[in-house]
């Protein structure tokens, strides 16, 4: 069976590629700027989901696609057409837990991902929607520079809670969806193993690098200036609303990673130890 992994340079896509290596499947990968040296054992194609014609060659003869939800509203129908024309049968969509939430601040992200989920499901593909909560990897994007440079993290809401999930666990579920029919048609919420405040998360990173890390409480204006350096404005609004809200309750902890893969999701400490070099 020929499988196409989009977003190959991203954390989830690259982990799926590694986990598929010894399955005997014929794996192809797309990203906007592929590095052919990275995976000499598979075919990589320079393709952009927002320019669906650039996907055509990669899609030839592909039965199953792992799809990042980056296709925008006006390119989605053409992306669907390209996959249909190529004879794709199954599509695993990387979506978000926000599709299950009702607070007004998630609306932008929720609708963006629901459009992709619905376009796939309503076009007759066998659709599997993976709906992860916060990625553990966000700590690298949000905090690694601050930790490397000052051994401190600025937080507007230190008691905000998430259940961060490792890319490898999302990828393990995706691999199950690719290689079996067990998850066909399902929409699956995926989280890490426990609800942790941001203060806890920083503490676990500190433990992983064996160095103290301070926390500076920021006003929302200060936080917007700091996090605006690594986030587009639409996500900045979403995250400020979400982080404030998440101080009021524990994060959802879903059993799906364990139920589907048979292993406990990777703990935040183990994740931080595996990625300690990013913070040093
Ligand atoms: N971060 C979270 O906490 C979180 C939680 C739940 C769901 N998600 C969802 O998971 C997905 C990935 O998030 P992420 O934080 O991992 O993002 P990311 O690291 O910034 O992006 C991952 C991959 O997506 C591709 N990509 C990004 N922008 C693109 C565009 N405009 N057109 C085509 N491809 C694009 C990139 O592919 P190239 O290699 O081609 O550049 C990249 O390899 C998003 O849909 C996000 O909403 C994220």
Automatic annotation (TrEMBL):
Residue span(s) of domain NAD(P)-binding: 7-179
Pfam families linked: NAD_binding_10
Family annotation (InterPro entries): Ergot_Alk_Oxidoreductase (IPR051604), NAD(P)-bd_dom (IPR016040), NAD(P)-bd_dom_sf (IPR036291)
Protein name: NAD(P)-binding domain-containing protein
Protein's organism: Mycobacterium dioxanotrophicus
């Amino acid at each position: 069976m020929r499988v196409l992994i989009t977003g190959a340079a991203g954390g989830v896509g690259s982990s799926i590629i590694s986990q598929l290596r010894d399955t005997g499947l014929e794996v192809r990968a797309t990203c906007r700027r592929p590095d052919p040296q990275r995976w000499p054992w598979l075919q990589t194609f320079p393709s952009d989901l927002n320019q669906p014609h650039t996907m055509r060659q990669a899609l030839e003869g592909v039965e199953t696609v792992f799809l990042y939800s980056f296709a925008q509203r006006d390119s989605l129908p053409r992306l669907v057409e390209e996959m249909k024309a190529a004879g794709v049968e199954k599509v695993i969509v990387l979506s978000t837990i926000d599709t299950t939430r009702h607070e007004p601040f998630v609306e932008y992200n929720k609708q963006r991902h629901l459009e992709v989920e619905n376009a796939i499901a309503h076009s007759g593909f066998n659709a599997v929607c993976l709906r992860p909560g916060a990625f553990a990897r966000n700590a690298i994007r949000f905090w690694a520079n601050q930790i490397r440079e000052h051994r401190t993290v600025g937080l507007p809401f230190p008691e905000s809670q998430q259940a961060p999930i490792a890319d490898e666990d999302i990828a393990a579920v995706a691999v199950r969806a690719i290689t079996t029919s067990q998850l066909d048609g399902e929409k699956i919420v995926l989280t890490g193993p426990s609800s942790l405040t941001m203060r806890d998360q920083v503490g676990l990173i500190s433990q992983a690098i064996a160095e103290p890390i301070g926390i500076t409480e920021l006003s929302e204006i200060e936080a917007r200036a700091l996090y605006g350096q690594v986030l587009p404005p639409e996500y900045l609004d979403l995250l400020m609303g979400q982080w404030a809200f998440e101080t009021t309750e524990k994060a959802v902890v879903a059993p799906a990673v364990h139920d589907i893969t048979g292993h406990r999701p990777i703990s935040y400490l183990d994740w931080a130890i595996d990625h300690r070099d990013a913070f040093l």
